[in-house]
């Protein structure tokens, strides 16, 4: 099995806020990330797919095609957007980096060629924080 990874980037605004909690509790748990006037991140996104190389090309899939899918289905929707308000697959969700990675996985999974599967969504929210989601 081979694993092919493509890196892309997007910049987005969000807030971490649980509407079932008081403002005080949100501030206690999420700190400045609960700021009601939003805050932003430069996200680094690594999408890894897996499969067997096609004998005619030597490719699991063409990395350019993978890039086109990521740009069309993910970056176009998230870049320079408010994740809580403007992104169909994140709307009204608690937009932690985990939730965003999970949403990206689900969007990507629908768009891959038949012989290629998702392996990992790795999403860096800051220089110090990232998640990896492997499905399930
Ligand atoms: N499990 C998670 N924990 C945290 C998330 C998250 O999505 N999942 N998100 C945040 C904040 O949104 C944000 O990422 C924190 O940024 P920042 O305050 O800059 O935190 P850093 O650790 O990168 O930087 P420091 O300056 O060291 O605080 C918080 N937790």
Automatic annotation (TrEMBL):
Keywords of this entry: Lyase, Metal-binding, Zinc
EC number: 4.1.2.50
SUPFAM superfamilies: Tetrahydrobiopterin biosynthesis enzymes-like
Designated name of the protein: 6-carboxy-5,6,7,8-tetrahydropterin synthase
Gene Ontology MF annotations: 6-carboxytetrahydropterin synthase activity; metal ion binding
Listed PANTHER family: 6-PYRUVOYL TETRAHYDROBIOPTERIN SYNTHASE, PYRUVOYL TETRAHYDROBIOPTERIN SYNTHASE
Cofactor(s) demanded: Zn(2+)
Record InterPro entries: 6-PTP_synth/QueD, 6-PTP_synth/QueD_sf
Membership in a protein family: Belongs to the PTPS family. QueD subfamily.
Gene3D superfamilies: 6-pyruvoyl tetrahydropterin synthase/QueD
């Amino acid at each position: 099995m081979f694993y092919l990874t493509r890196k892309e980037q997007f910049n987005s605004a969000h807030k971490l806020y649980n509407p079932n909690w008081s403002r005080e509790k949100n501030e206690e748990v999420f700190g400045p990330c609960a700021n009601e006037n939003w805050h932003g991140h430069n996200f680094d996104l690594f999408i890894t797919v897996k499969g067997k190389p096609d004998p005619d090309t030597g490719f699991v899939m063409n990395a350019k095609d993978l890039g086109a899918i990521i740009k069309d289905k993910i970056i176009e929707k998230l870049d320079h957007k408010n994740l809580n308000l403007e992104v169909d697959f994140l709307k009204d969700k608690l937009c932690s980096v985990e939730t965003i990675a999970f949403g990206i996985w689900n969007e990507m999974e629908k768009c891959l060629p038949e012989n290629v599967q998702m392996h990992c969504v790795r999403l860096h929210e800051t220089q110090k924080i990232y998640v990896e989601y492997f499905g399930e």
